[in-house]
Write a structure and sequence with these properties.
6 helices, about 75% helix, mainly alpha, rod-shaped, about 0% strand, about 150 residues
């Protein structure tokens, strides 16, 4: 019996070591978009979609050289997008999509700044060019946002 008592702790220790070493990390599936995540993204995209629908209004202001309304539009509907777009990039989309969306977001706001400067100096041709860039960047940003088709099956 004494012999069994001295061997028992060694056997238990070996068994514990075996259990710990064989119980490695369980591989996690890569993160995917779920219907709930897509719904959250769409909720934060509402002001972005609204601004996209109103972009022809900005074009009309530029065409008529109504610089006061151009300025109001830039600092109103377009200026208000910063919070939504920033939050989407930072906290809502998966990390694999963040770099592309952040790049488009930054390009969008650089073009808005240039459009604002052109409007401030009442430079019609520059304002038209920058409007086209703003519109292109906004459309690309929206096209890059994950949708229901990106939900993993």
């Amino acid at each position: 019996m004494k012999r069994l008592r001295s061997i028992l702790p060694i056997v238990l220790a070996a068994f514990a070591i075996l259990l710990v070493s064989c119980g490695g990390n369980v591989a996690k599936a890569p993160p995917v978009y779920t219907p709930e995540k897509i719904a959250e993204i769409q909720r934060y995209m509402t002001p972005v979609y609204s601004a996209q629908e109103r972009m022809p209004e900005l074009a009309e202001y530029i065409e008529s050289e109504d610089w006061k309304n151009v300025d109001s539009f830039i600092h109103g509907p377009l200026g208000g997008l910063s919070g939504s777009m920033s939050y989407i990039n930072r906290a809502v989309v998966l990390s694999k999509d963040r770099p592309a969306l952040t790049e488009l977001y930054e390009a969008f706001y650089e073009d808005i700044e240039r459009l604002d400067a052109a409007a401030g100096f009442k430079m019609y041709s520059s304002a038209i060019d920058e409007y086209k860039s703003v519109l292109k960047d906004l459309d690309e940003y929206i096209d890059t946002i994950p949708t229901e088709s990106d939900i993993a099956s």
